[in-house]
């Protein structure tokens, strides 16, 4: 049995690769390959899966960033990528038994042109909490999918009411998020975690966050700060960006969970990492940053999605500092916001449950009996 997992970019690649990993555990004889539209497919490769297609990210960082200027740049530099994607996958059409799409409707349409068969669709980019699917998107899902795996239960329910087979099984982005004890903060201080983002705007974002750090250290005692540095960010360059801050700040590479789970709250100017932080039960403060991840509309949507676990503060910097101090001083409020985040993001194990649905565990599938 040959299974192809198609994904948009970094976050979707990770979810798709984890699903593929679970499929291999359930069906060791299955062949699972990835096909990333806007990345080099590293998430698949590091889990031992082949990659059918990959492409360097376009100037905007990905098609999902709703920037008109970014779209124009993408169109100029990467206009042939979707056609190459379809052509490459279409050439493998007769060798692929099952297709899982992880991403947006555009990717689902590309997959349909390539394979012309019904697929499973994990739709992490849309939620009825802030961005319901359009009627045309619902029509496409009806035409092209076997089943849709949604971001949350309310979205699944509303899609089912429209005649679409939809179910919420949890978000795979919450899987593989375990403490590794790679970072241990001072026990006598309150830790504030910092997520400046995973793209190049992180270097400018950290300067804005630095303003907040300076104000906090003058108005609230007993604080410690730790920046969770993404693997895509240069740690030394990030350190240079905050060299004028006269307080101790830990820069911790590749220990996201350790930093976040040890924090009283997190200052975040990131995308997927904010959702993961909410799913771990940690309240988040956010404000407009310097890149397309942290625009007004995007943060408003993220606030609706996470149900108040993420608080978007427009008044920078005074309002941000006031909100942080309020949270630090109120443990019950922190716990309540954390609980909302866990409810919105769902339980761990979503990748395993999706893999079981796709395979039909316990039944004979395409000549291969899967073990439960």
How would you explain this protein's 3D organization?
The strands form three sheets. The protein has a seven-stranded parallel β-sheet, sandwiched between helices. Strand 14 and strand 15 form a beta hairpin. Helices cover 42% and strands 17% of the residues. It has helices at residues 10-26, 42-45, 68-78, 81-90, 105-115, 135-144, 153-161, 202-219, 235-241, 256-261, 272-279, 296-305, 318-328, 331-345, 350-359, and strands at 2-7, 31-36, 50-53, 98-102, 119-122, 145-149, 166-167, 190-195, 223-229, 249-253, 265-268, 284-286, 310-312, 364-365, 368-369. It has two domains: 2-175 and 348-369, Glycogen Phosphorylase B (Rossmann fold, 3-Layer(aba) Sandwich); 190-345, Rossmann fold, CATH 3.40.50. It has 372 residues and is α/β, with parallel strands linked by helices. The model is unreliable at 363-368 (pLDDT under 50). The longest helix has 18 residues, at 202-219.
**What is the CATH topology of the largest domain?**
Rossmann fold
Number of strands: 15
SSE topology string: EHEHEHHEHEHEHEEHEHEHEHEHEHHHEE
Shape: globular
**CATH architectural category of the largest domain:** 3-Layer(aba) Sandwich
| Straight-line N-to-C gap | 17 Å
Q: Helix count, per DSSP? A: 15
Residues in β-strands, percent? 15-25%
Query: Major sheet: size, sense and barrel closure?
Result: 7 strands, parallel
Question: At the first level of CATH, what is the class of the largest domain?
Answer: Alpha Beta
The helix content is 40-55%
Give the overall average pLDDT. 91
| Physical arrangement of strands within the biggest beta sheet | 3-2-1-4-5-6-7
Structural class: alpha/beta
Radius of gyration: 21 Å
Whole-number count of domains:
2
The CATH superfamily of the largest domain bears the name Glycogen Phosphorylase B
Q: Low-confidence segments, ≥5 residues, pLDDT <50? A: 363-368
């Amino acid at each position: 049995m040959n299974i192809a997992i198609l994904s948009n970019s970094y976050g979707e690649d990770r979810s798709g690769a984890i699903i593929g990993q679970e499929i291999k555990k359930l069906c060791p004889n299955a062949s699972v390959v990835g096909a990333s539209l806007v990345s080099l497919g590293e998430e698949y490769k590091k889990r031992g899966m082949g990659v059918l297609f990959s492409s360097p990210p376009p100037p905007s960082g990905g098609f999902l960033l709703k920037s008109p200027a970014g779209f124009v740049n993408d169109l100029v530099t990467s206009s042939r990528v979707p056609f190459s994607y379809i052509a490459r996958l279409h050439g493998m059409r007769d060798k692929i038994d099952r297709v899982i799409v992880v991403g947006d409707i555009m990717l689902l349409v590309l997959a349909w042109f390539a394979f012309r068969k019904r697929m499973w669709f994990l739709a992490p980019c849309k939620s009825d909490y802030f961005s319901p699917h359009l009627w045309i998107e619902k029509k496409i899902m009806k035409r092209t999918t076997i089943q849709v795996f949604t971001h949350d239960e309310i979205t699944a329910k509303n899609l089912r009411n429209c005649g679409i087979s939809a179910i919420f099984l949890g978000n795979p982005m919450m899987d593989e998020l375990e403490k590794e004890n790679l970072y241990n903060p001072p026990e006598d201080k309150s830790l504030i975690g910092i997520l400046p983002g995973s793209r190049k705007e992180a270097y400018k974002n950290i300067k804005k966050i630095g303003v907040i750090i300076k104000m906090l250290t003058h108005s609230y005692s007993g604080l410690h700060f730790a920046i969770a540095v993404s693997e895509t960010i240069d740690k030394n360059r990030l350190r240079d960006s905050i060299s004028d801050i006269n307080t101790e700040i830990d820069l911790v590479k590749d220990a996201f969970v350790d930093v976040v789970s040890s924090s009283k709250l997190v200052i975040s100017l990131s995308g997927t990492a904010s959702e993961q932080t909410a799913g771990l039960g940690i309240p988040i403060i956010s404000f407009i940053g310097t890149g397309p991840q942290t625009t007004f509309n995007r943060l408003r949507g993220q606030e609706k999605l996470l149900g108040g676990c993420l608080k978007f503060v427009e008044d920078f910097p005074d309002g941000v500092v006031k909100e942080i101090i309020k949270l630090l001083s109120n443990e019950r409020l922190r716990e309540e916001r954390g609980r909302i985040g866990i409810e919105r993001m769902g339980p761990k194990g979503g990748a395993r449950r999706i893999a079981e649905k796709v395979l039909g565990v316990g039944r004979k599938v395409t000549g291969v009996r899967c073990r439960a």
